[in-house]
Design a protein that fits this description.
This protein is an alpha/beta fold. It is 38% helix and 20% strand. Its EC number is 2.7.1.130.
């Protein structure tokens, strides 16, 4: 899905405001249905469940956050496994749960994000989150990290963390399709224990202030580009290729390395690339003397297609990791979730 620009603007132009008004009834219906769904009582999983989700439709940085949280859990002595829906992969259409095998599966079967997760910890793709949790427990995990699923009521979350992009926050504050929110914030906050603000910006600060007023824990983090790749990109002129929730975030990361972004080729989140789309970009980069750079998530999808692999080999892949501002605060929150069991998200 390619998100509209007006979703992320606090002060959209007049034509966008008119469109938002026209979409308001659909947004109200969508938000109400999601809110009702979130209010359902979930089943208790056979192991603690830590949900890493977001309020908006894509682009907040939840997968890097899930990876970072799994790393902290491992440092605490836990054995984490990831649970995911496997968006865009054929495994998501199967019943039960399937453990992703990085040596046998590709993004076509598992989805792009599960391929990144499976490189770090056991990862289970399941439409039924409870089935996924049971499979993870049977496989030896003692805590499940739910990548996305804040709006999914299937299982009880022992800890629910909402990841917020500091640069855009809740965007225009409207619900899909009039804005990026999956449901009104008032309906989502009661299901959240902590807000993780990634990066800086007034929109993120506004969300952090709201979280504190509601008694939620506020965590801080930043997305850091791989240092070796970043060093190689410093001073380079690049053509950025991104099919993610908010491609502008990739541009900001590239600029952080010191690269000059000559052009951004933006596609929708989880976009299934074709040779007809990528080959001209490879040719353009060569013709203009630019370095073609893409994200790890996009590279996972391209690696699944034999016809795209030679083109991918001519690109630079820039991985990012999420770095917490206060690791001790994160560890304390996670440790509490491991031993305390389920607790209400609304502060007492």
């Amino acid at each position: 899905m390619r998100t509209p620009g007006f979703w992320w603007s606090a002060k959209p132009a007049a034509p966008a405001r008119a469109l938002m008004a026209a979409l308001a009834p659909a947004a109200a219906a969508y938000g109400a249905l999601t809110a009702l769904r979130m209010a359902r009582r979930g089943a208790r999983a056979p192991l603690p469940v830590i949900c890493v989700g977001n309020f908006v439709a894509g682009g907040a940085g939840k997968t890097p956050a899930a990876l970072a949280i799994a790393a902290r859990l491992a440092a605490l002595g836990a054995r984490p496994a990831f649970l995911t829906r496997g968006h865009g992969g054929s495994l998501s259409r199967r019943s039960g749960a399937t453990r992703v095998d990085p040596a046998a599966h590709t993004a076509r079967e598992a989805g792009d994000e599960p391929m990144l997760l499976a490189a770090v910890a056991p990862t289970f793709v399941a439409r039924d989150r409870l089935a996924g949790a049971r499979a993870a427990r049977a496989d030896g995990a003692d805590v499940a990290v739910l990548d996305d699923g804040l709006q999914n009521p299937a299982i009880v979350k022992d800890l629910a963390i909402a990841v917020i992009d500091g640069a855009v926050g809740a965007g225009n504050g409207r619900v899909v399709p009039a804005g990026p929110l999956r449901a009104p914030l008032a309906a989502q906050w009661p299901h959240v224990h902590a807000a993780l603000v990634v990066g800086e910006g007034p929109p993120g600060e506004a969300m952090a202030d709201m979280a504190r007023l509601l008694g939620k824990t506020v965590l801080r983090a930043r997305l850091a580009p791989d240092p070796d790749v970043a060093a190689a990109l410093g001073g380079a002129r690049v053509l950025a290729l991104a099919g993610i929730g908010r491609p502008g975030k990739f541009v900001a990361t590239l600029e952080e390395t010191g690269a000059e972004v000559a052009r951004l080729a933006a596609f929708g989140d989880h976009h299934p690339f074709t040779v007809a789309e990528i080959a001209p970009l490879v040719e353009e980069a060569a013709r203009r003397g630019l370095r073609l750079v893409t994200t790890a998530k996009d590279a996972a999808r391209m690696a699944a297609d034999a016809a795209l692999r030679p083109l991918l080999a001519q690109m630079t892949v820039l991985p990012v990791t999420l770095q917490f501002a206060d690791v001790a605060e994160v560890d304390a929150l996670l440790a509490g979730a491991l031993v305390a069991g389920p607790r209400p998200a609304t502060a007492s």
